[in-house]
Amino acid sequence: MSAVSNQLRRAGAIFGTALFLLAAAPLGQADQNTAPDFKIREGKNGRLPKLNTALPRYVQVFGLFIHATSRVPEAKLLHAADIAADFLDNNRDGKPDNPEVNDTLWSERSAVVMGYNERELDRLHDRLDDQVDDYALQGLFATETLPKGGPHNANSSEFDASIEEILHIITSIGYAETYPDVFGERRGSELAKAMDVARGGYFRSVPRRYPAGAWYSYDDRTCDYGCQVTEYVYWSLTSMLDGQDFRNRGRDISHEWKLNTPEKLRAKDKAVVKILTDPKYKLPTRLPDGKYQQARKLSSVKLNASPGTDSITLTAKFPPDTIVRLEKSHDLQQWIVAQNIDDHDGTVSLPMDARASQAQFFRLRFSE
Fold first, then answer.
1. Residue 326 bridge partners (DSSP)
2. CA-to-CA separations, 112 to 15, 239, 352, in angstroms, rounded
3. FRET pair for 306, CA 20 to 30 Å: which of 62, 75, 173, 319?
4. 324: closest CA among 366, 295, 293, 272?
5. CA 204/CA 129 separation, integer angstroms
6. What domains are there in the chain, each with its CATH number?
7. Could you tell me if 256 and 60 are in contact, meaning their C-beta atoms sit under 8 angstroms apart?
């Protein structure tokens, strides 16, 4: 998290679906339980009217909004919305996994605000300042939103910061205010007590030097105790979901966080693992990968089987640019039975040898 994000977060405002089955609700009428349609709206957002001029474009993701300036590329805005949706609806059934947390985000008028870079976000802060004290906002730069970076791409040494910043607002507003005794960003909460152990003791502000045994040692002096809790739950959850172990990542973050794999975290920080894996909190069990929208589209596809004398034909209509493969698994072997793409209307027919019906398993695999 950048220094400007820390300053904005602590200023009172935190700055710094199936395609075929669901229809978009009229503008301004979607509530926090409406599945996201990933439509970029322009103009007035009745929930957050003070953002309309400075951040004229937005996407609603359940109880959270993603607002952006005109300089933010559309693809980056939609990627951030996809990551947010995957955090809130990790099982991808079109409903928020934890309705209470989602309701809190909605009631607190929460939004991720995207500027092109840190300089533009600084200007936004100066412009809005105390006008948005009744909103909960988290900053994100387009320049740090990297759909092709790690952890999505294990060969990249760059990090997609949308994972971090979007998770920050979900935990520091949604979870901290819904479960204050557990996720509260104050001394004495269960999460804060685990953090104090991870830091090697209680430190109201950032110490000059952490104890030798500390595995969490964030040294940004603009980050107060509550901010340290936000960072701690981010490091812990993403490490547990295997999101901090890609090219050079362990080395790059070791000055701040040492338990960057699920194995290291489970072995060393049992207190935070117990909190994060408690099923009643319905935290994500899979790291968002930027494919929420694609998965939701494909989940609504209906597959029709037409038996013939020597073959069975599976027919379905898919979104544009979808590649479809039919595979069968028998005695632990897999192979492609057929692949055929009709570019005209998205309809795909996959003829399958009737003898293959004796195989134990069939599955369709999709990619875009």
1. 338, 364
2. 7, 22, 47
3. 319
4. 366
5. 26
6. 3-281 (no CATH), 301-367 (2.60.40)
7. no
User: Using one digit for the tens of pLDDT, what is the confidence trace for 171-182?
Assistant: 999 999 999 999
Closest CA to 27 of 39, 17, 10, 11: 39
Peptide bond just before 262 cis, omega within 30 deg: no
Burial (Cβ within 10 Å: 0-12, 13-18, ≥19) of residue 126: exposed
**Type of residue numbered 29:** Q
Give yes or no for residue 286 having a pLDDT over 50: yes
In this predicted structure, what is the pLDDT of residue 148?
Answer: 95
| pLDDT tier for residue 295 given thresholds of 50, 70 and 90 | confident
- State the pLDDT at residue 352: 60
CA dihedral sign, ordered 254, 259, 263, 268? positive
CA distance 347 to 257: 49
3-state secondary structure of 53: coil
- 66 φ/ψ angles, rounded to the nearest 5 degrees: -115, 110
Q: What is the pLDDT of residue 331?
A: 41
Q: Measured at the alpha carbon of residue 24, what is the angle toward residues 303 and 138, in degrees to the nearest 5?
A: 110
Long-range contacts of the stretch 152-159 (C-beta < 8 A, 24+): 152/289, 152/290, 153/246, 154/246, 154/247, 155/246, 155/247, 156/246, 156/247, 157/246, 157/247, 157/248, 157/249, 157/252, 159/249
3-state SS class at 88: helix
Map tokens 């929208």 to a residue.
293
